[in-house]
Amino acid sequence: MIPFNKPYLTGNEIKFIEEAHSLGQLAGDGVFTRKCEEWLQENIGVNRALLTHSCTAALEIAILALGLKEGDEVIMPSFTFVSTANAVALRGATPVFVDIRPDTLNIDENLIEDKVTKNTKAIIVVHYGGVACRMDKIVDICSRHNLFLIEDAAQALLSEFRDKKLGTFGHFAALSFHETKNVISGEGGALLVNDISMIERCEIIREKGTDRSKFFRGEVDKYTWRDVGSSYVPGEIVAAFLWAQLLQAADITKKRLHMWQTYYNAFKHRSSEGSIQTSSEHKDCRHNGHIFFIILESRLARDRFIEQLKLYGVNAVFHYVPLHTSPMGMKINPELPGRLVITEKMSSRLVRLPIWIGLEEVQPKVISHINNALTGLGLDG
């Protein structure tokens, strides 16, 4: 079976883990954590990067820093991972779901402003597959309505919008280094803080509500409880593993983009004929090759396609079940199912193709099986 994902090792992960052990610190915020944070600050261009144990943790810190409470609202897409909404719901605030664009599957920037109310405090955008949302219009909306902007850039490391790195547009951004991402540490994430006034509070929240970070920098002679917070710091083994990956991030991205382009070249004729829709290039966006998807004509065709690929030994998978159709989503807004038409239509028909470093050797075979499966569905190309 050709897997959907296969974690990639650069070759230096164990070496750096052994080095972390030799330094005598396996708890967090050691040498490798600082290396990773400095790399992110320099290569993305943010004021502060804080390594976390997950992207979920990064989102939770951002929402805690904003001080959201019951009655507050945060606008976001429904087509996203549950952590995006959970960070808001955990504070008693309300996720307000907006439909997506049919081309990028990102939040439809033209629908956002109609959802802004006196209770709206923030907008969370999700850069699906590493492809940028239309940040020019979204930043303008936030500016005019005095809203905070959070980028869920879990899939978007080193992606750009108009030659500017994703993660630099919002007050905050969250990254993921989960094993399914381009650059990995097994589990892991980072909070990017662009708003200088929020840095100290985010450091405190991340360290269980204490000023422990200031203590380690020698700015206070002891640390104490200052604010709400939790244990969001990863250990040095995770950071050491991540450091090996970050050093190869540009090469990893280049290789994934090559595989993405190979898929695109193989199926663009089918897409232009209208028999399927595929991932594609978009104006002003420079993506990172994280996802290549195919969208079929119906849920039934999608399911049959996935099953046929399994018979060929290829594991392709669907993606998010829209949050507004979930039990929790319907509890928040029971009238929404059926109204986010594009979200429901696209999510029920989408298939993600395998894409991982090493797949290059068998990608021609995978493409052949995909073409055979599509032909079997009556989609000749």
Q: Which whole number gives the mean pLDDT?
A: 96
CATH fold node name of the largest domain: Aspartate Aminotransferase, domain 2
* Percent strand: 5-15%
Poorly predicted regions are none
Oligomer: single chain
The CATH class of the largest domain, by name, is Alpha Beta
Task: Quickly count the helices.
Answer: 14
Q: How would a textbook summarize the main sheet?
A: 7 strands, mixed
C-alpha-based Rg, rounded: 21 Å
Précis, in short:
The protein is an alpha/beta fold and 381 residues long. The protein contains 14 helices and 13 strands.
Provide a descriptive summary of the structure in words.
This protein has 381 residues and is of the alpha/beta class. It folds into 2 domains: 234 residues, Type I PLP-dependent aspartate aminotransferase-like (Major domain) (Aspartate Aminotransferase, domain 2, 3-Layer(aba) Sandwich); 128 residues, Alpha-Beta Complex (Aspartate Aminotransferase, domain 1), CATH 3.90.1150.10. Helix content is 39%, strand content 13%. The chain has a 7-stranded mixed beta sheet with strand order 1-9-8-5-4-2-3, sandwiched between helices. Strands 7-6-11 form a 3-stranded antiparallel beta sheet, with no helix packed on it. Helix 4 links the parallel strand 2 and strand 3. Helix 1 packs across helix 9, helix 2 runs parallel beside helix 9 and helix 3 crosses helix 7. The protein is globular, with a radius of gyration of 21 Å. The model has no long low-confidence stretch (mean pLDDT 96).
